[in-house]
């Protein structure tokens, strides 16, 4: 009886020879995009002023630190729906990564003709700490990795607990990814180890402080000869008027002496006794790709930060920056949204009694209010502190901007960038390319796509070769099967009679 | 098999199996005879087409319109799919059949069809395309692979008889030649007046296409006073 089942199966096979192949001409959605967040990009050009042999002996393989580090960095690159794939990357800390690892087609470019394939994420160097990467092109090969928190302690740089986590998969034909990374705290300090090797004077000289004009300030600064001119510059040129303004009257001689003493002590602590030149506390950055079955959303969030400069004299607080793009499958439309990081700047009063300044960075006009200590340098709201000194620090105010051209959208939220202490370790006397350069809480999300009409397969030339053998084989098979069935029928009939 | 325990049930099942066997025999005969059926159907259709070919006014209008350039007021006359277009004769392989307009499955049931996107037969310019069955449906192009350089192919229209000659090579390769089933360049227009014939290969399959190309060598008017040059 079972063998009889073969007959209808073969019949169906034969029938398929007469059924024309259907032509696929259905709409198909393709899109690709990326999300990226960096809690912190930091480069320390001032280290370049140190002698190479010293830098090498202290930092070892991390001699490239002066090129910069990226901390709390996450990325997602994705592609769907026709050929879904997703890459996720999270790293706590890496010193070689650029800020623009992957890029989408230019906004406005024709899609999908110019859609590039997903590039592989960069090979991470061995000096990256707390890095994870997961790639998936189907639900079957999802990737999930968690990097144990790691710490990195160098002579002048201390990284505390760099962690990362990455998960990527394909769900329902759509890419899904969750990546998070962060560094709890980064401290940059001019530790006694360094100072002991070089001697304070030569270090300060190498940092450019020796180029300050001579000053008449005396007192505690005398133990650190080159700090004297710096403090004198600060007090006489900038902090004095500000503080005087805050008190309602010009500073008296006694106040000035106290101010000089306080700041000198602060700098002595920073430069000579292990205090932190820069101390950064970070949150966790994330890049999350999700969908609800009809739309795909990429959200990148860069962690906020709390940055202390010069032993806490200047404190900058940066909120989280968000950028989101949503791709809708049905409409083939994408939307973008971004919210900037909100930043506050605080300048502590060296004489005590709270903050000298505590303002949102985005205050429209600060000129004059602070007697020149703080000045707006352009219409974008960039702020400059301690202008004209080696400690000149420029803060670029956060901004957020969604861009949309057709089905290509990009949302970016440029947190805050800080070019701190630009004169220290500059490539030339009076230059401003030194110091410590920070980019905080930056995030961007992009998606581009199109609804395609899948091209029907090119028709072939007319089919003029009928499969004669199929008919002959089918006839032969059916004849044999008929004989077999008939034989069984006769046996059964004979059995019924018997 | 408990249900087969009784003689009555066994008899009933035996009857069913007998009926199934009879149906299978009918199916086998049908399958065996289907290729031949297509040949018979094509031959009957050819008889009707020969008559139509000689009398169709629409066909004459189409050729006349094709011969008159648009600048001279000529307007294209579209032939219906399946209507007679030309008669093709190849003495070498014993071929003599009427070619219909179109290359759809329905049109090619008559045996051979004219690619509608190519010029009408005997056109003094361009590449005339004809597709024909190699198996079933009269299999007019069954022996297309036997053509060699110099073999003559004659196309007859209501007004002309044109002689084409198989050329030695096409684009640097032998002629006839085998090509991809999606290779539509076979009917691309040519600088010289050509005839391109295509069929399936290997015989009995549609995996590839066999193509033979011939060049127009002479034209003879067969109707006195024809305006066709």
CATH superfamily of chain B: Sortase
| Fraction of residues in H or I helices of chain A | 10-25%
Second rung of CATH, namely the architecture of chain B = Beta Barrel
So what's the overall shape of chain B?
A: elongated
**CATH class bucket of chain B:** Mainly Beta
Order of helices and strands of chain B: HHEEEEEEEEEEE
Number of contiguous helices of chain B: 2
List keywords for this structure.
heterodimer, A: 498 residues, alpha+beta, 3 domains, twelve-stranded antiparallel sheet, 7 helices, 21% helix, 40% strand, B: 229 residues, eight-stranded mixed β-barrel, two-stranded antiparallel sheet, 2 helices, 11 strands, elongated, disordered C terminus
Could you give a quick summary of the protein structure above?
Chain A is an alpha+beta fold and 498 residues long. Chain A has helices at residues 6-16, 52-59, 192-198, 200-206, 227-247, 253-272, 468-497, and strands spanning 27-43, 69-81, 85-94, 129-136, 143-153, 157-171, 174-189, 276-282, 284-291, 295-302, 305-309, 314-318, 321-328, 333-339, 343-348, 355-360, 374-376, 383-385, 393-396, 399-405, 408-420, 436-453.
Report on the architecture of this protein.
The complex is a heterodimer of chains A (498) and B (229). With 498 residues, chain A is α+β, with helices and mostly antiparallel strands. Chain A has three domains: 1-18 and 468-498; 29-190 and 281-342 and 398-453, no CATH class; 193-272, no CATH class. Chain A has helices spanning 6-16, 52-59, 192-198, 200-206, 227-247, 253-272, 468-497, and strands spanning 27-43, 69-81, 85-94, 129-136, 143-153, 157-171, 174-189, 276-282, 284-291, 295-302, 305-309, 314-318, 321-328, 333-339, 343-348, 355-360, 374-376, 383-385, 393-396, 399-405, 408-420, 436-453. Chain B is α+β, with helices and mostly antiparallel strands. In chain B, the strands form two sheets. Chain B has an eight-stranded mixed barrel with strand order 1-2-3-4-10-11-6-5. In chain B, strands 7-8 form a two-stranded antiparallel sheet. Chain B is elongated. Classes of the chains: A alpha+beta (498), B alpha+beta (229).
